[in-house]
């Protein structure tokens, strides 16, 4: 078994996940674009891993988009995405909220028919170690 630790941006919410992830999807659906403010969400999924909240459970809130399976949990203080249990019972963990390194690479891009027009060909863009001058 592997333990992973994570937290929200403000540090109020912290958690531990014990177990393994089944898949790691980069989701390009319009719902994920809206709730991340980016081209895609990066979520790890597990049917067997266990989530233990270490702090801030009272700051965690969830939203399910009516009429869909799209669900998101987040810290109500800073807005950071945190793990949630999906409608089908899978643990869904936003990869960016983990403080522990994960060795797993993304399994697949999903909902690419909704991919943002500006998403792609990033390898040709300049790269900077920090905010450029």
From TrEMBL:
Keyword Ribonucleoprotein attributed: no
Annotated keywords: Lyase, Metal-binding, Zinc
An example molecular function term from Gene Ontology annotations: carbon-sulfur lyase activity
Keyword rRNA-binding tagged: no
Record PANTHER family: CENP-V_GFA DOMAIN-CONTAINING PROTEIN-RELATED, GFA DOMAIN-CONTAINING PROTEIN
Residue ranges that the Swiss-Prot or TrEMBL entry lists as coiled coil: none
Domain of life, per lineage: Bacteria
Annotated protein name in UniProt: CENP-V/GFA domain-containing protein
Organism encoding this protein: Celerinatantimonas diazotrophica
Domain CENP-V/GFA as annotated: residue spans: 4-119
Family: Belongs to the Gfa family.
